[in-house]
Amino acid sequence: MHVVMISRAESAETWAREMRRQNPALDLKVWPDETADIDPRDVHYIIAAKPPPGEIARFPNVKAVLSMWAGVDHITSDPDFPTHLPIARMTEEGLTRGMREFVMAQALAAHLKMPDYLNQQRDGVWCPEIRGPHGTEPLVDEVTVGVLGLGVIGSDVAKALADFGFNVVGWARGPKNIPGVSAHHGDAALDQVVRQSDILVNLLPRTDATEDILNAELFAALPRGAYLINVGRGEHLVEADLLQALDSGHMAGATLDVFRQEPLPDSHAFWRHPKITLTPHVASITRVKTGVGRLLDVIASYEGGQTPSGVVDRQAGY
Ligand code: NDP
């Protein structure tokens, strides 16, 4: 039984070294160099980060595909991806904690109006009162953060924001019970969450139901001066609608980590927009050591006849 690693996005060399360290008995082959001479029928598991379209379909006896990332759109967007194949998402502590740190930093920066002060510094302007006349600057308990997506990562982020003192409202498909978080669910509840959100964090997966969800209608429902943190996927955001909401003055700013086209093209308006903080899809990454531990656990579960946690519901798309 071979396990094949197909990665065009993570360092296969680094991951393979760690896998072999943690489980020297594993018959791991790294695509493309080590898979040229193997019989495709002997491959039972594929570990993937942005595999080339059509590649996974070449292996007829695969039992499961293991994503190196939390999102699986980099696998399911392949038109030749076999619909019957189970996909195990990446869930691991480092990825969750990394996102907690990133969103906390961005939420605090937005709350403290740091992007505006940085623009002032660049322009040589001394104006302390961006946060309101002195003595009236709000503290976090006067700020409501909305978190879209209360899954493995979103629920952790929502709880951390609430623990820090923010008012937190959240939204998912099904009901949730997260200490300190006012959780809502279902399509009809989205508007209610958005209307309260001074800062809106998107941690949804990319599915047919969530694509384009960050659009003009949603932005119009946000309180005036709201701030968006998009760490879900670029396809969630209607880019022109965001530019319009920022330029009209309705929204104060946005932190964008993910984009429809990555790398973001040089000519894109986001690069130089004064209200946009931009990072190159680095909000959080899978940590190799804990990520490899998760991959080995998933394979062990399947080999032991069990279904691991975090298997994608192909109907729902996440
Ligand atoms: P999960 O699958 O654990 O959680 C997804 C959440 O979204 C669930 O709470 C789910 O609801 C909710 N959801 C899905 N569809 C809908 C819908 N139509 N309406 C309302 N709620 C919906 O995913 P993770 O928390 O592990 O990751 C979330 C996403 O974060 C990833 O898919 C990826 O796109 C992004 N990500 C980005 C990174 C970056 O560096 N920028 C790094 C890691 C992840 P329910 O719980 O009811 O099922």
Task: Give the secondary structure arrangement, pairings included.
Layout: E1 2-7, H1 12-22, E2 28-30, E3 43-49, E4 64-67, H2 73-76, E5 87-88, H3 93-111, H4 114-123, E6 144-148, H5 152-164, E7 167-172, E8 181-185, H6 190-196, E9 199-202, H7 216-221, E10 226-230, H8 239-247, E11 251-256, E12 276-278, H9 288-303
Parallel strand pairs: 1-2, 1-3, 3-4, 4-5, 6-7, 6-9, 7-8, 9-10, 10-11, 11-12
Helix pairs in contact: 1-9, 3-5
The chain binds NADPH dihydro-nicotinamide-adenine-dinucleotide phosphate (NDP).
NADPH dihydro-nicotinamide-adenine-dinucleotide phosphate binds near residues 91, 171 and 207.
Keywords summarizing the entry:
318 residues; 7-stranded parallel sheet; binds NADPH dihydro-nicotinamide-adenine-dinucleotide phosphate
Please give the largest β-sheet: 7 strands, parallel
Q: Main sheet: which strands, in order across?
A: 8-7-6-9-10-11-12
Would you tell me the overall average pLDDT?
Answer: 97
Q: Segments where pLDDT lies below 50 for 5+ residues?
A: none
Instruction: Figure out the total of helices.
Output: 9
Structural class: alpha/beta
Overall shape: it is elongated
